[in-house]
Amino acid sequence: MVTVTRDPERYRVLPGEGYDGVVQVSAEGFYGSGVLLNGGRAVLTSAHVIEGATSVTVNMDTPAGQINVPASQYALHPLFDSANGNGDLALVWLGASAPVTAERRSLYREDDEVGSNITLVGYGLPGDGLNGYVESGSVAPAKRLAENRFDTTGETMKDALGRGIGWDPLPGSQLIIDFDNGTRENDALGALMGLQDTGRGAAEGLIAPGDSGGPAFIDQKVAGVATYTASLGRKGQSPDVNDELDSSFGEIASFQRVSHYQQWIDQSLRVADPDAPTRPEEVETHVFEGDEGTTLAYFLLEFNGQRDDPEQWLSVDYATRDGTATAGEDYVAVADTLILYPDETRAAIPVEVIGDDTPEPDETFYLDVFNPVGGSFGEDVLMLTAVRTIQDDDGWIA
């Protein structure tokens, strides 16, 4: 991660500082970054990080040190187009559940990203805005963060640059940032598009090699996935401080817009989970906790109404709530939005139950479902609630 400061260690994020769900993704000698999603079974990253790999490993920083989890499978977005930076997303399924200490993240689902402040996190090379990144081999990969702002979209920038640019971003699919230093000369989008705005000022940073696949967060949710950087010029003017593609001042970076691709992400996760119930009679209201790691308890949401438009998306918000079970000790708390896409009438919500070998009574927790959009729960019904029982399997207690 390249930042304004000349002290890259200032931007190192250590375990416990709030970004433990950001991981390093290794694929046969090449590495990038990624983010662990809700459910603790899958990582979102860039397709170009793992394309063609026969083996992929996810490396996670934990309070006890780094652990390496081999992937069981991965999937690239079907529209992946490296030449234009389109569909540059991949999902990596872990061969074992992630440690409970690793943060799980939800997706940013709104379409108001442009103008929003973002936090960038990844394992990319460090450096500073004047000199670019430090060459690989001189520093060990470490998790770092920087700040920036989503400035525009890919198609808006293409329109401003004119027909001469050989780049064709899918409409609505890419978010663009620039790396400002507070001067007009090196304000990339000011020079290229007339967007005279230095964004976050001295707090800004840019992605570098190794950050590919890393998340851009808005309000702690994954809004973008790092794809590439570029050094651009227009009408003889180059805002890049040194005219080299090295993540220095005046360059731009593109991110895959998660809200644009959320349907593929959600449905890919659902299809890949063979144990999720698909009918009410398959729902288990009791789940054994296990001795280690996590197991999944499922809730099944079903829509029995009629859509006004066959292409309409339906959604509800949901959140877990303690009963006699305690979040963080007995299960992993989750709060998110579930969307039923066209042709879908039901979907499962997984919640991780934490295993241990301590005898204890059976315990319960709840899932509250609220804020329906595109349908209702019935007259005067504001919230639905379901309960799950965690069954102890460690022996009897008095």
TrEMBL record:
It comes from the Bacteria. Residues 1-270 form the Peptidase S1 domain. InterPro entries: CaCA, CalX-like_sf, Calx_beta, Peptidase_S1_PA, Peptidase_S1_PA_chymotrypsin, Trypsin_dom. Keywords: Calcium, Ion transport, Repeat, Signal, Transport. Gene3D superfamilies: 2.60.40.2030, Trypsin-like serine proteases. This is Calx-beta domain-containing protein.
